Amino acid sequence: MTMHGGAGAQEEEEQEEMMQKLRSRATELLLKEDWNEYINLYSHFISTTSTFNGGSKLHKALPSAFSNRAEARLRVRDLPGALADCQRALDIEPSHVKALLCKGKTLLELHRYSQASETFQLVLSLQTHLSGNNEALRELIERSRKLEVQSKTGVFDISDWIMNGFGGSSPELAEYVGPVEVRRSIPGSGRGLFATKNIEAGTPLVITKAVVIGRGILPENDRESGVTARLVLWKDFVDKVLDLGRRCKRTLRSMYTLFNGEDDESKLQVPEMALFNPNEKTKMVAMDEEGELLLDVERILKVLDVNCLMEDAACARVLGMKSGYSGVGLWILPSFVNHSCSPNARRLHIGDRVIVHASRDVKAGEEIVFAYFDVLAPVKKRKEMSKRWGFECRCERCRFEEEVLFKEELRKMEVSLESGFDAGEVVVGLEEGMKRWMVSKAKERGFLRASFFAAYADVYKSDKMMRQLGKRIPTEISVAENMARAVGGDERVMKMMVLERLKKKRKSIASDHSVIEMEKALKLGKGVYGKVMKKQSMKLLFELHT
Fold first, then answer.
1. Is Transferase given among the entry's keywords (predicted)?
2. How many CB atoms within 10 Å of residue 474?
3. pLDDT (0 to 100) of residue 513
């Protein structure tokens, strides 16, 4: 219906007054950073405006309204909602710069780096035409391209950040899925992460951002205060996860792929890798457009109980976090990694991202496994720890140590060590025993040595015992290399058996032999920290951790 004369002018005035009220209220909410009310405000405006004709002022304001609501949804991490709003704005006005910018930023957050770059390029062409300031835009394009390369190659370098003493913000890392896939661990059983090709120690396997992460200072000396602090940290963490689950169905869908500790995991589907891989954009879009999901709070709580990762775990190292802080987080794909007492992977935590890397060489088809607890211990202690975790470990190492004919002799050595007997006698007894028992495989020797790591550590840190035992025991570096090949890189092994020795040698005149040992230490370091830094940066980490 077309309006004429006074009636048309009156409607225009009413529409202008409505726009003024909208802008005033929006500014107020913007300053308060009340994003939920900001979203509600524009949702009401959009629903009201849809009843007006296409030529009205209010209808012409729709692209900006969708764009503003998209920016608020981006703020609260409703990424699919933000992207949908951007597209609705662009359907009305294809060259709406604000909507295009928000779309590019949302695509970046969704890890669709190539699409983000293309969107920013389109904005640049429009801005150039309008003679706008393009410096910030060019930075976004460069950032998108850099992340796109990282997401395809898994190659990145955090050396500068380390050399600068972890100053400033932690380096931005792209989402990356390497040569791995989720499969059935054993036909008819649970699921696990597996290598799809041979992988060298230190190679990044997965780089991913936490769904949610919680950190806080937990008192060490006051048990009661420590328990209270953990409960507060956990409650805050859970609230954030549930809030995100309500707003982002893609996140909720990914959480629902995880084991909840009660269902028969053999009946759970093996998720498509497209759910985790930013380069599988077509399938990802389809997943985002699937129907509604309901938030099952009880199910999510069970999923969190089973799948959350602690940053201070035996298989992890946190870089750049202040001393005294503890963290817990949920990372979806790493949650599929099972336990083994002969692990082949470790985690490096940087900011809210985790890097899962090979801690030793991995063969194609081999399952990627973490150490959920301290595996540098005899089989009896490991069995006790696995029961606390709610499972019985039947890994290759546990089966070997339980089934060997000389297990009673191993048990006597374990009791001797627990009773405070001389560590040197235990180490010599094990070394001579392995010859007598004809343990010829290097991996099996590594298993046994790792089980008595505490004894080896006591011997190697004592100059007196080293002189007394002489050639009756192998060198520190050879034992460290043997353990690393058997149970993966471990910071304690590297520190106690290699770095402490090099530290002592630095006090004397450097020799060709110490240079060779440093090269061996750097090789071990790749298994501990991953191939993510240059040699000089790794040497600095060595100094910080000895």
1. yes
2. 16
3. 65
- Euclidean distance between CA atoms 382 and 376, whole angstroms: 9
CA 96 vs CA 52, 101, 210, 474: distances in Å: 21, 9, 32, 71
Over the stretch 241-288, which tens digit does the pLDDT of each residue have? 999 998 888 889 899 999 998 888 888 899 989 888 876 654 444 444
Cα dihedral across residues 452, 457, 460, 465: positive or negative: negative
With beta carbons less than 8 A apart as the criterion, state whether 202 and 526 touch.
Answer: yes
Rounded-to-integer distance, Cα 191 and Cα 209, Å: 21
Report the C-alpha gap between 336 and 185 in whole angstroms: 10
DSSP H helices, 93-134, are 97-109, 113-130
CA distance 256 to 293: 10
- Per-residue b/e over 237-257, b at no fewer than 16 CB within 10 Å? bbebbbebbebbbbbbbbbbb
- Work out whether the CA dihedral 471, 477, 481, 486 comes out positive or negative: positive
Q: Are 49 and 43 in contact, with CB atoms under 8 Å apart?
A: no
- 48/40 Cα distance (integer angstroms): 12
Q: How far apart are CA 114 and CA 148, in angstroms?
A: 6
- Dihedral angle sign, alpha carbons of residues 357, 361, 366, 369: negative
Helices and strands in the chain, H and E counts: 25, 12
Task: Determine contact, residues 95/126, Cβ cutoff 8 Å.
Answer: yes
In single-letter form, the type of residue at position 545 comes to H
Give the H or E element holding residue 329: strand 325-330
Q: Two tokens at 60?
A: 């012409």
What percentage of the chain has pLDDT greater than the value 90?
A: 67
Beta strand pairing status for 309-310 and 338-339?
A: unpaired
- Predicted TM-score (pTM) of this structure: 0.90
Residue in the block written with tokens 């954030």: 240
* pLDDT tens for each residue of 527-538: 999 999 999 999
Distance CA 39, CA 18 (A): 17
Strands of 167-235 (E only): list them.
Answer: 176-177, 180-184, 191-195, 204-209, 212-217
Q: What are phi and psi of 339, to 5 degrees?
A: -95, 150
Distance CA 387, CA 403 (A): 19
Parallel, antiparallel or unpaired: strands 316-319 and 345-350: parallel
pLDDT tens across 433-458, in order?
999 999 999 999 999 999 999 999 99
Angstrom distance (rounded) from CA 399 to CA 413: 19
